[in-house]
TrEMBL record:
<dbReference type="GO" id="GO:0055085">
    <property type="term" value="P:transmembrane transport"/>
</dbReference>
<protein>
    <submittedName>
        <fullName>TRAP dicarboxylate transporter DctP subunit</fullName>
    </submittedName>
</protein>
<dbReference type="InterPro" id="IPR038404">
    <property type="entry name" value="TRAP_DctP_sf"/>
</dbReference>
<feature type="binding site">
    <location>
        <position position="168"/>
    </location>
    <ligand>
        <name>succinate</name>
    </ligand>
</feature>
<dbReference type="GO" id="GO:0030288">
    <property type="term" value="C:outer membrane-bounded periplasmic space"/>
</dbReference>
<feature type="binding site">
    <location>
        <position position="93"/>
    </location>
    <ligand>
        <name>succinate</name>
    </ligand>
</feature>
<feature type="signal peptide">
    <location>
        <begin position="1"/>
        <end position="22"/>
    </location>
</feature>
<feature type="binding site">
    <location>
        <position position="235"/>
    </location>
    <ligand>
        <name>succinate</name>
    </ligand>
</feature>
<feature type="binding site">
    <location>
        <position position="208"/>
    </location>
    <ligand>
        <name>succinate</name>
    </ligand>
</feature>
<dbReference type="InterPro" id="IPR018389">
    <property type="entry name" value="DctP_fam"/>
</dbReference>
<keyword id="KW-0813">Transport</keyword>
<dbReference type="Pfam" id="PF03480">
    <property type="entry name" value="DctP"/>
</dbReference>
<feature type="binding site">
    <location>
        <position position="212"/>
    </location>
    <ligand>
        <name>succinate</name>
    </ligand>
</feature>
<keyword id="KW-0732">Signal</keyword>
<dbReference type="InterPro" id="IPR004682">
    <property type="entry name" value="TRAP_DctP"/>
</dbReference>
<feature type="binding site">
    <location>
        <position position="40"/>
    </location>
    <ligand>
        <name>succinate</name>
    </ligand>
</feature>
<dbReference type="GO" id="GO:0015740">
    <property type="term" value="P:C4-dicarboxylate transport"/>
</dbReference>
Length: 328
């Protein structure tokens, strides 16, 4: 009798726990290093909203902006370990996993974001999304930010103006070579450390998009910004490939749909957010925005472009040619 009461009670308990347990959503963490009021920040929030909607609540997405959970140094490792499921690092930060993606770091390669978009949508660009699968990283999408501008506490109008200065760079050997070519010193630093490094003078200058220069307040500690458009900061949204491949087809499809729509939102707002950030910096009066004459621009191209030959064999000539062709 006692035994049967126990059995009945256990079945009743299971009946309660069973459906409740089945309803527990899968918690998915999305970690990134920028502010919410940037293209990536907005797109991550959109992805959360849509992924939860399309999976009917089976997935709960937690977004951690501003290096809150993991900064540059740790986020890739965190994906590999399964501590976080989604990250969207700048393309410059895949340096240690593949040299091919470094094509995006070549200075003066793309005329504008439309050209970057065409390259990413093409055969080679799409293949790069899967180029790190053996390292367990799977790219689900590219997200745009924008073209890079260069700043310091002195006007940078000619390449010689950068001589002797120390510039913060992302962890990319191409970006290091780009500044060495200007007789400047590159310093690899995590994004979360840049403001302070500029403020205390550990570094003299930096390169970034308008939205990052504005949202991280770099313009408050940099007197001069040159609208150089000399490179690009874009992102690849990556997941742990084993984790992704282990999800049901339904969940994958729903999250892919959410990702495609969030990507569209990202790419629709990126240009606007960068333009607005530029206007806000201009009207703050905190730093002066300099334009280059065509002659000055030519000098910057000549000073930076030798980097291409240096990295051509590591990246692959075909890839560089395809990227160049996307400008047409
Ligand atoms: C940087 O480190 O400068 C940027 O890549 C940060 C970002 O994610 O936009």
């Amino acid at each position: 009798m006692r035994k049967s009461i126990f059995v009945v009670a256990s079945i009743a308990a299971l009946a309660l726990v069973g459906p409740a347990a089945a309803q527990q959503p899968i918690v998915v963490k999305f970690s990134h290093v920028v502010a919410d009021n940037t293209p990536k920040g907005q797109a991550a929030i959109k992805f959360k909203e849509l992924a939860e909607k399309y999976t009917n609540g089976k997935v709960k997405v937690e977004v951690y902006p501003n290096s809150q959970l993991f900064g540059d140094a740790k986020e890739m490792e965190a994906v590999a370990l399964g501590d976080v499921q989604f990250i969207a690092p700048s393309l410059s930060k895949f340096d240690k996993f593949t040299k091919q993606i470094q094509v995006f770091d070549l200075p003066f390669l793309f005329n504008d974001i439309a050209a970057v978009d065409r390259f990413q949508a093409g055969k080679q660009g799409q293949a790069l999304l899967r180029s790190m699968e053996s390292k367990n990283f799977l790219g689900l999408a590219y997200w745009h930010n924008g073209m890079k501008q260069i700043s310091a506490n002195r006007p940078l109008l000619k390449p010689e103006d950068a001589k002797g200065l120390k510039f913060r760079i992302q962890a990319s050997d191409i970006l290091a070579a780009q500044f060495q070519g200007l007789n400047a010193t590159p310093q690899k630093l995590a994004f979360s450390e840049v403001y302070q490094a500029l403020q205390v003078g550990t570094v003299d200058g930096q390169e970034n998009t308008w939205s990052n220069i504005f949202s991280q307040k770099f313009y408050e500690v940099q007197k001069d910004i040159t609208e150089s458009d000399h490179g690009v900061i874009d992102y690849m949204v990556v997941v742990n490939a084993k984790w992704w491949n282990g999800l049901s087809k339904d969940l994958q499809d729903a999250m892919k749909k959410a990702m495609d729509e969030a990507t569209k939102v990202n790419n629709d707002v990126a240009g606007k957010l960068n333009d607005e950030a530029k206007q806000k910096i201009a009207s703050s009066g905190a730093s002066k925005i300099h334009q280059l004459t065509p002659e000055q621009r030519k000098q910057w191209v000549e000073a930076m472009k030798p980097v291409w030959a240096k990295f051509e064999s590591a990246i692959g000539k075909d890839l560089i040619d395809a990227a160049v062709a996307s400008n047409d």
